[in-house]
Design goal:
By secondary structure, this protein is of the alpha/beta class. Helix content is about 30%, strand content about 20%. The chain has helices at about 80-100, 115-125, 165-180, 195-210, 210-215, and strands at about 10-15, 25-30, 50-55, 60, 70, 105-110, 130-135, 150-155, 180-185. The radius of gyration is 16 Å and the shape is globular. The chain contains five helices and nine strands. The strands form two sheets. It has a seven-stranded mixed beta sheet with strand order 1-3-2-6-7-8-9, with helices on both faces. A two-stranded antiparallel sheet has the order 4-5.
Length: about 220
């Protein structure tokens, strides 16, 4: 799936492996200096054969990493390019129903590190099914755009040298204060992703999309 205008993103798309129409979308956003290929192997660790997986490329090239991308420049004051990324990601997410037939209410937005920060930032502005942040953080106080706040899973490493554990605790507390249903898990690890986290993510998404619902959706 390739972006065709300035408010779109290029992404790796993995279609459903079942014969059924897509029941939902799982979007994953990579971290600073990575690209869409970085998180794509995680699709094989999640058992959602009737979902579309989308692994988006951040809109801006990384200044030091060849073929690396960034959502904004971490080394610049006030997160230069963050407003542009917020707009581009929001517009791209809104466009997905037109290209996949799946509404935002059936889309899970997730991300790692800088991608997790983008998920937490943009996610409360849209009527998404759920949010997942892995080693993420908050840019600032979130600004929800509606009464329906997507349930959120926050996962972090207790020994993360890049994004401190306190950032995850802050995100949990801020989201809970806003009335978001938050699930929180931490592992003894650094700035990385463990297979066990995909097991927790699997359970989280299954709670949002019960198996009984799939049976009803797929009835002729």
């Amino acid at each position: 799936m390739e972006g065709t205008d300035p408010l779109s993103l290029e992404a790796i798309a993995i279609p459903p492996t079942s014969a059924q129409p897509p029941r939902g979308i799982i979007v994953m956003l990579h971290g600073w200096g990575a690209n869409s290929q970085d998180l794509a192997p995680l699709a094989s660790l999640l058992n959602f054969p009737d979902f579309v997986f989308l692994f988006a490329d951040a809109p801006f090239p990384h200044p030091q990493v060849r073929e690396g991308r960034m959502w904004y420049d971490l080394n610049s004051p006030n997160y230069q390019k963050l407003p542009e990324s917020q707009e581009i990601l929001t517009m791209w997410l809104r466009s997905l129903e037109g290209s996949t037939g799946v509404p935002l209410e059936r889309t899970v937005l997730s991300g790692f590190s800088q991608g997790g920060a983008m998920a937490l930032d943009v996610g409360l502005r849209l009527p998404l099914a759920g949010l997942v942040s892995m080693s993420g953080y908050l840019h600032c106080e979130p600004q929800p755009m509606g009464d329906r706040l997507p349930p959120t899973l926050i996962m972090h490493g207790t020994e993360d040298p890049v994004v401190p554990l306190s950032a995850a605790h802050q995100a949990r507390e801020v989201f809970q204060a806003l009335g978001v249903a938050v699930q929180y898990r931490e592992w003894r690890m650094g700035h990385s992703i463990l297979p066990e986290q995909m097991e927790v993510m699997q359970q989280f998404i299954e709670e949002i999309f019960p198996a009984s619902e799939a049976t009803n959706i797929n009835k002729p």
